[in-house]
Write a structure and sequence with these properties.
Blueprint lengths: L6 H23 L4 H19 L5 H19 L5 H13 L1 H22 L8 H18 L5
Length: 148
């Protein structure tokens, strides 16, 4: 039986594994299966909405909602792929710290690709960047800054 203190590690570990699998698919095929992105999106969106109705997390829910809105507008403008959008929404809803690091990693990777190719419209596997950042976030939380 798992103790209550181990449950976040298991949940974040499973989430990390799912995003990592999506990252491998994005790297090798250039697309991510819907069986990975849609459940992650639905769970993250549900968690975001639940935060809005939670007394202690209402402000976090509003902040995450604003980020989700910005991501949605970016996806509608064609600045990111559908799987990128769904996985980021899922990450921000379920594990906001990992969502933030994933977004930062994608920004750095995208900037490097633009400089490397000298193309302001350079494309790169965004979910792979998210997977890398999520794995690093998990390791950091597990080894450096344990959850309470």
């Amino acid at each position: 039986m798992l103790s209550n203190s181990a449950l976040p590690y298991v949940a974040y570990g499973l989430l990390t594994a799912l995003v990592f699998l999506g990252g491998i698919q994005d790297w090798s095929r250039g697309e991510v299966s819907n069986w990975i992105s849609i459940p992650l999106f639905a769970a993250g969106l549900t968690a975001s909405v639940l935060r809005l109705f939670s007394r202690g997390q209402r402000m976090a829910g509003i902040a995450i909602g604003m980020i989700v809105l910005a991501l949605t507008l970016s996806a509608l403008k064609g600045w990111m792929g559908g799987a990128d959008w769904k996985i980021l929404v899922g990450l921000f809803g379920l594990w906001p710290f990992a969502g933030l690091t994933a977004l930062a990693a994608a920004g750095v990777w995208g900037g490097v690709e633009m400089l490397r190719t000298r193309n302001p419209n350079a494309r790169f596997p965004g979910v792979t960047a998210f997977a890398f950042a999520t794995a690093l976030t998990f390791l950091a939380q597990f080894f450096i800054m344990p959850l309470n």
